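Think of the structure tokens as a kind of shorthand, similar to the way a musician reads notation: each symbol stands for something richer, in this case the local conformation of the backbone. In the example below we present two proteins back to back. Begin with the first one, reading the sequence and then the tokens, and try to describe in your own words what changes along the chain.
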Amino acid sequence: MRNNARFARNLAALFCVILVSVLCLAKKEFVLPAAQPAKNYPARDDQSNDKLAVAADPYDMPDKASIFSVRYGDVGFLPIFLVITNDRDQAISLADMKVQLVTVDRTKIDPATEDDIYRRLSRPSATGRPSPLPFPTKKVKGTVSPQTMEEIQRAQFAARAVEPHSTQSGFLFFDVSGISNPLAGARFYLTGVQDAKGNELMYFEIPMEKYLSAPAPPK
């Protein structure tokens, strides 16, 4: 009888530990990293004459990628944290902004859409960028958990403008499946930024080697 009682107590305690762990995981919500001014990142284009700076910070290492609940690298996506700092006295518009990651062999990769990410997560084996042909595609969300969908929506860069003396940030996800080292020799381009009068400003070009060759941050 004593053994049975002890076994029951141990089983109950184990159940409590598991339940608490599950509840903690269920309550964990994605939190966007606090952005520093863009000029503080290794991979950046600091256009001081225009009082603008853009940084691209890849989340390619496990310690950095641990902020996500999904291992995006396992399904071929590279998250890059985009940071835009405006030190002007007027706002800048990002409504027509366009971003591309251009690999060393000149492959041009546009940021993935939410549906691109949902589709890959629901079918992890379907790697490779979507066909450019205009065939209709079905939105796939049913096999992606609400928590993951919320994480993707919260993470993505969504700013349409950057107010004076402020910074906007968020993630872009690039489909780099099949590319063994997508950052080596790659360049990050951002175009379409406009001033308060609607004039397009100089484009931004960031060599990703700046990130790869940067000293490791102190722990």
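Once you have a description of the first chain, move to the second and do the same.
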Amino acid sequence: MATIELAHIVKRYAGVAALTDVSLRVLPGEVHAVLGENGAGKSTLMNIATGTTHPDEGTITVSGQEVAALNPRMAAALGIAIVHQHPAVLKDLTVLENLQVALPDSVFAGAPVAQVARRMLDDVGLRVHLDDRVETLTLAEKHLLEIAKAFALKPKLLVLDEPTAPLGSDAVALLFRRVREVVAQGTSVVYITHRLAEVRQLAGRVTVLRDGRVRGTAAVADITDAELLAMIVGRRLDSTFPDKHRPADGQPNFVLENLSGRGFSAVSASSTRGEIIGVAGVVGNGQSELMRALAGLEPFTGTVTVEGGTLSQAELLRRSGYVPADRHVDGLMMRLSVRENAALSALRRFTSGLFLNRRREIHGVQASLDSLSVKAPSLDASVSALSGGNQQKVVISRALLSEPPLLVADEPTQGVDVGARAEIYAILRETSTRGVPVVVCSSDAAELEGLCDQVLVMSRGHVVETLVGSDVTEQKIVSAAVTSTAEAVSVAAARRAAGSTWRRFLTGDYTPSVLLLAVIVLLAAVIASGNGRYLSVFNISTILTAATAVGLIAMGQNVALLTGGIDLSVGPLAGFLVVVASFYVVDGAPPTMVIAGLVMMIVIAAVVGAINGSLIRFGRFTPIAATLTLYIALGGLAFLLRPTQDGYIAGFFQEAVNFSVGPLPLAFVLIVILAVAMEFALRKRRWGWRLRAVGSDQDAARRIGVGVNATVIGAYIGTALFVFLGALMFMGQYGIGDPAQGPAFTLTSVAAVVLGGTSLLGGRGTFIGPVIGAVLLQQLLNASTFLGLGSTVQYYFQGVLILAAAVIYTLVRSRRQRI
């Protein structure tokens, strides 16, 4: 009985067939390789096998049982795990939180959570702190984290989609050992790769896809590499690598002299026209930092000379062609089209006078993409719709279109099929022959041997050996790297190890709260020094009572912002709820009427939240458009119910809301307790992890089994329920149904959340920060009265403070990669 069987699978996108009548049968305890060019349908087929994508036709059978509608959560329950080509990790969560949100609680049973998580990472050789935020990890470390999650599930079927692309030789060896171990225990493995050597090392059977169809299945031992290549590309390749440069006398056209920067030191090298320089070493020893410096992305000392002219960092940034290792982070604008991504660095080539010549742009981009055999529905298709390998080729196309004086390629063939690799190698060689210096960094020593004329082997940020000519061999490259780093600590690990606790605090979510508390104390001290009444019991109580209402609405706004959205309707909703209460929670009303009014307020809030969330998820409205619709509707309804101020709230209710013990309002004490409880849930419970996961990366969250629709709709309902609590405070403070009262609190709530440090992009924030932000805003309003300032100055002061906070938080967080 097969572990999984995909039969007659068909999948179309916009009428274009991605898979046509594809069948795949994976047996228990086997490694089954799946090969094919980029765009052949490999990843689409595996996304169907793991429930991320639904087929248009065909059947999926798991362990003899046909599955009608597979989704990621069901796939995990059936024992199916996948390591995606682009890791499904959440950059705004910590390493530990990434493990906890993706894995069931049962994985962590029987031992302390941190101990179990540490064991998972050790099993794949990942040496990072559990509290490191994932955005600080290298691409290789992100892949290892993804691999660790998959192995932790102890799956019946493990799908590995290009798992070794960014890994060094030591990490690859450890991964292969772990794969052999789980296969020996009965796990089936589907292994997608472009490297035939890996197929020979691991796989028992191989299936080849081309143009969305199965071209053949065979035992690995019964088929040659040449036959596999012919099946993959539909033709025979004469040679993978172009002929190397023939040594000739000549002046160097590219010289590095004593180049030093973050992660590397004293790098010197030179090359003549036609030579390609390679950069090698164990991953994390300064290679990528050197490449970023050559691309002008990192500051450096020393000199970079091209054709006799010295290029500064600014000139390198403006003119060099750069192919980054992580195309999703540094290489592509995923919301732009293929044409826009490819042409972005070469717009000056396509202008006529002051304007862009669209015909020239299309012709140039099309020619470049054709030379790389990029498969795309059209030039105007979104680049996110392309396969990983085709996305990589778009990045290379952009670098070449800019006609750079220097081409810097960091892992240029990562995720690219064997046919396209040969094309990329030929283009790199041709570029070098034209006189453009080419520097290539690769974790594949065999690739460097076949392509490069000289190789710089790096360890701990230093060039420990320079191999030239016949000495450029895989064996000597690996030997130099391994021998030199036997007792070394990688650059990435060393960077994190130094002052890691302080670094995590500075780039953490609680730093804004500490800064705000310091500002509150400083402001109070300054004002109190000139006016002794400022710290009176009455004044403190007034500030905290007002802050409680704003703080509750801000906490609700915070829930929406954590998902990457925003709720503009919070202010009008609060005002509308107070207007509704003014008909029920009044003096002389029987208890049943008061209770009915409060229940009605809760129901209205929940319905408004559900409408907002549904418009966003199912109506495909942007959060601003959806909530602005409710903003207008609720404001209009409030005026329909109460054209003017009327309906006085019951006195007993006002007394209860405003009850204080000394300077501390009871309501403020309760909001602090609520904020602490919500913060605990945000950090320690699956609800909080999922909320932040959706805000961090919706696609990654969906791939690990988070119900994005339910999470977003639930978040907006939660936002509205916090607004209900804020409305209760407004009822006590204002005591009357006022239809014009609410809208102003929308911007106030956003201001409090921004001051509290929550990211407007989602995924990062606290519940403590918005409460402190609300206190600071009310303190500013109160201070203006004591200082005799007008209302205009109040708003200027708030605006300057918010702007300063946004700038400071951005600068602090932008340094997290540099510390």
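Compare your description with these statements about the second chain. Residues 591-617 form the longest helix (27 residues).
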